[in-house]
Amino acid sequence: RRKTGVGMSSIEEIYPISRADLDLVRAFPKGFLWGAATASYQIEGAIKEDGRGPSIWDEFSATPGKVFQGHTGEVATDHYHRVPEDIVLMKELGLSAYRFSIAWPRVLPQGRGAINAAGLDFYERLVDELLAHGIAPFVTLYHWDLPLSLHKVGGWTNRDTAYAFADYADIVTKRLGDRVANWITLNEPWCSAYLGYGCGIHAPGIQDRQAAFVAGHHLLLAHGLALPRMRANIKSVAQVGLSLNFTPTYASDEREETKRDTELTDLFVNQWFISPIAHGRYPEGLFEALEVTPPPMQDGDLELIGAPIDFLGVNNYTRDVIRGGTIPARPDESVKVGPVPGACYTEMGWEIHPQSFNELLLRLYHEYGMQALYITENGAAFKDTWNGDGVVHDPRRIAYIQEYLQAAAEAVEQGVPLRGYFTWSLLDNFEWAEGYSKRFGIVYVDYQTQRRIIKDSGHWYKALLSAHRDAS
Ligand SMILES: OC[C@@H]1[C@@H](O)[C@H](O)[C@@H](O)c2nc(CNc3ccccc3)cn21
Fold first, then answer.
1. Cβ-contact 396, 380 below 8 angstroms
2. What residues flank ligand 1, with Cβ below 6 Å?
3. Strand order through the sheet with 335-336
4. What is the pTM of this model?
5. For residue 204, which of 60, 328, 103 has the smallest C-alpha distance?
6. Count of CB atoms within 10 A of residue 101's CB?
7. Is 347 a catalytic residue?
8. For range 120-149, the mean pLDDT
9. Is residue 146 within 8 Å of 156, Cβ to Cβ?
10. pLDDT band at 185 (very low <50, low <70, confident <90, very high)
């Protein structure tokens, strides 16, 4: 074990940080939260244990052809049985916060009605263990694992599901609202709506654009209905937000059709959800561009949806470069060009482009008036290999996080109210339709043994977080 080459303090770690890293962390204010993120279906396993009910992802991943090599979340990283060791790992990494999601079907196996005490108890123990280790819980209430019984009566295309979500949020915040100060209602409703009901590559696997917009509205309504119920149960200092995914869109050339298609893609990918949340209205031209009719709304819906949030969770990984079609292509069919000369890509085929991350943060602050932002997901999948000892070299992930943090630091210096950063992900885990073929963790998981091995990026992240503590 050797001391860092240039650190200000005697940080003992396997992976040295650079002078540039030390300058980087100084850009972030005292109290900036450094964390890692996960989600229930991707890490817990134990899908039939202690009264958990089935979710749409249980059914979808068990359906042949839906997930890479038929992988499922049945075992995942077995986190359900490894909470104490995984929290020791978080402590070892020096995390000041941990973002995780609660599985709705563990708490309400039928989605509504009877509460599964063992499910609530599991999350209470998880929260108490985090607090005992000085790690702030950031709780996502919905990260895509909808109770199957609600899907059977329409899922997110049924307005009642929004009311069921508000009841679920009420139950969870009644139990944990005295201890959890950071709440995220929904993770990426765009993915739930469009990937789940529009193109169908995610659960429940429906291919119907109109249904996607009906589902999207009910997801937003769920958020809006839950807000007051949650605020009644949590401490006055606690904060509630939601996490939205953004993929900034750039024109590949100066042609008018390219500029038009780029703007329409931006409408569809980036404005669809932030506009109702920030401005209480859907973006002008969205429904026409997608050739759908406006989803059924009731009076008061948009006011509920546009109620103030305390922070916006920003999930960003990449950008899209668009080339215009000769006829107006629907934005969900826009032509994404690649590879971009000189660009680098992750294993997901996502371009590494920190500049677009910086520009996104500035836009969310200036155009949408967000008064507090957390990066609730940012990270990269690369071909990580483990040779059976305690080391996993992942220099490209270190470089990716360094570059994106540099872009975030510049946004902070430009006045963006960024309060924290959660890398995706703490652990390698079930990557939805890609199964276990894609590794995003700063900790490697050997799925044969469930052994956790901190990657070089985890050691580097630990040293960076320590340097920030020393510099604050
Ligand atoms: O793919 C990595 C993670 C995933 O594991 C998380 O559960 C999910 O919250 C998540 N969202 C994104 C970004 N979303 C996105 C959506 C459409 C195209 C590209 C990225 C990446 N990720």
1. yes
2. 39, 42, 187-188, 191, 245, 247, 315, 317, 377, 424, 431, 440
3. 249-251, 320-323, 335-336
4. 0.97
5. 60
6. 26
7. no
8. 98
9. yes
10. very high
Residue from 245, 397, 434 whose mutation best tests the ligand 1 pocket (most atoms within 8 A of CB): 245
pLDDT (tens digit, 9 = 90+) per residue, 2-14?
Answer: 344 444 344 444 5
Catalytic-labelled residue, pool 13, 44, 188, 351:
188
Q: Which of 189-203, 282-296, 324-338, 401-415 has the weakest average pLDDT?
A: 324-338
Instruction: List the structure tokens of 248.
Output: 């900034």
**ipTM value greater than 0.90:** yes
Q: Stretch 428-450: mean pLDDT, rounded?
A: 98
Looking only at the bridges linking them, the beta strands covering 451-454 and 443-446 are antiparallel
Strand 97-101 relative to strand 33-37, pairing = parallel
